[in-house]
């Protein structure tokens, strides 16, 4: 089997990286929404962070940074 030309391989990998990037953003937004739901249920970012074993700053940042945009 012959290897495709390098330009085609690079183009294909660039397309894959773009798709993966979109998937990462979508997953981060879903995670942000889930964390926000946790805050609503437990009452504070600190309680969510404590339950997940993470810092409250990391949880707070994830909620704010990846809050889903409404269209």
Summarize the entry for a quick read.
The protein has 71 residues and is mainly alpha-helical. It has helices at 6-42, 45-52, 56-65. It has one domain (8-65).
Fold topology:
Layout: H1 6-42, H2 45-52, H3 56-65
Helix pairs in contact: 1-2, 1-3, 2-3
Account of the 3D structure:
By secondary structure, the chain is mainly α. The protein has one domain (8-65). 77% of the residues lie in helices and 0% in strands. It contains three helices and no strands. It has helices at 6-42, 45-52, 56-65. Helix 1 (6-42) crosses helix 2 (45-52), helix 1 packs across helix 3 and helix 2 (45-52) packs across helix 3 (56-65). The longest helix has 37 residues, at 6-42. It starts with 5 loop residues before the first helix and ends in a 6-residue tail after the last helix. The model has no long low-confidence stretch (mean pLDDT 94).
Whole-number count of domains? 1
Overall radius of gyration: 18 Å
Assign an overall shape. rod-shaped
First-last Cα distance: 47 Å
Count of individual beta strands: 0
| Unreliable parts | none
How much strand?
A: under 5%
Structural class, please?
A: mainly alpha
The SSE string, one letter per element, is HHH
What's the average pLDDT? Answer: 94
Number of helices: 3
Major sheet? none
Question: Fraction of residues in helices?
Answer: over 70%
Q: Top keywords for this entry?
A:
71 residues, rod-shaped, mainly alpha
């Amino acid at each position: 089997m012959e290897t495709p030309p390098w330009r085609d391989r690079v183009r294909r990998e660039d397309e894959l990286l773009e798709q993966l990037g979109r998937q990462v953003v979508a997953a981060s937004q879903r995670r942000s929404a889930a964390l926000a739901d946790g805050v609503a249920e437990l009452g504070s970012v600190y309680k969510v962070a404590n339950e997940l074993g993470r810092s409250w700053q990391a949880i707070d940042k994830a909620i704010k940074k990846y809050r889903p945009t409404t269209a």
